[in-house]
Amino acid sequence: MTDTSPDGFAAVARAAYAALPEAFRQLSADIVIRIADFASDEVLRGHGISSRYGLLGLYHGIDVTQKSGFDTIPHQDMVWLYREPILRFWQEGPDSLEKIIQHVLVHEIGHHFGLSDDDMHELEDEARRDEE
Question: Is residue 100 within 8 Å of 53, Cβ to Cβ?
Answer without folding.
Answer: no
